[in-house]
Design brief:
- The protein has about 220 residues and is of the alpha/beta class.
- Helices cover about 35% and strands about 25% of the residues.
- The longest helix is centred in the C-terminal third of the chain and has 18 residues.
Length: about 220
């Protein structure tokens, strides 16, 4: 479960106020809204990259509002994948386990497992400049999943892809979320993506978030 409880955040004239909504455990939530409305800020607060002015953030039954990012059990796919430019795909996927000082054999096994599942085993020795947009997003997803998070956050992961690749990656995201039983929150401005992916949908307008009734 992901829950925002009366969350507030301010930066100059920009304000988020009284943000309260829940993505039930094991469900795929989609948050829609126009560019610049604050969707990414909410994800960064959930990750621990920004501190709210007020309110609380829960993952499951844990209040994680004051926990550091590495203790929240979150996998995060930022916009455009945000690859490390000097790392191979193998190193990208293993990064979260490396910084947790996991044994080399465990890292190698997890990288192989994810690369096979995501269809990128043939790319393990490549660097980001030699990957297509769709390949980069698969690698970013693998990196986010490496430490076996309970929650997956995705910041417009399909926005830079053409329509055919969007459909392919959307199907992959849904499959991974279901197979792993993850609670996901995916932000987008695309109604098509929401229709393809969402178990529950929300819309952000003027600093507020409302659930979109299912049709």
């Amino acid at each position: 479960m992901i829950r925002f409880d009366n969350l507030a955040w301010h930066a100059g004239a920009f304000r988020l106020e009284n943000i309260s909504f829940t993505v039930p455990a094991g469900r795929y939530g989609v948050l829609m809204g126009s560019t610049g409305c604050g969707k990414t800020t909410l994800l960064e607060i959930l990750c621990g990259l920004r501190q709210p002015a007020d309110g609380h953030v829960f993952i499951g039954e844990r209040d994680v509002t004051d926990l550091p990012p590495g203790e929240r059990g979150i996998g995060y796919v930022p916009q455009d994948g945000a690859m490390f430019p000097t790392m191979t795909v193998r190193e990208q996927i293993g990064f979260a386990l490396e910084i947790r000082q996991r044994p080399a054999a465990e890292i190698a096994a997890r990288v192989k497992e994810l690369a096979d599942s995501l269809g990128i085993a043939h790319l393990l020795e490549r660097r980001p400049q030699h990957l297509s947009g769709g390949e980069r997003q698969r690698v970013a997803l693998g990196r986010a999943l490496a430490a076996k998070p309970s929650v997956l956050l995705l910041d417009e992961p399909l926005s830079a892809l053409d329509e055919e690749l969007r459909d392919e990656l959307a199907a992959l995201l849904k499959r991974v979320q279901r197979e792993l039983g993850l609670t996901a929150l995916h932000i987008t401005h695309s109604r098509r993506e929401a229709a393809q992916l969402a178990d529950v949908s929300f819309r952000m307008i003027s600093g507020r978030v409302d659930e979109v009734p299912s049709t």
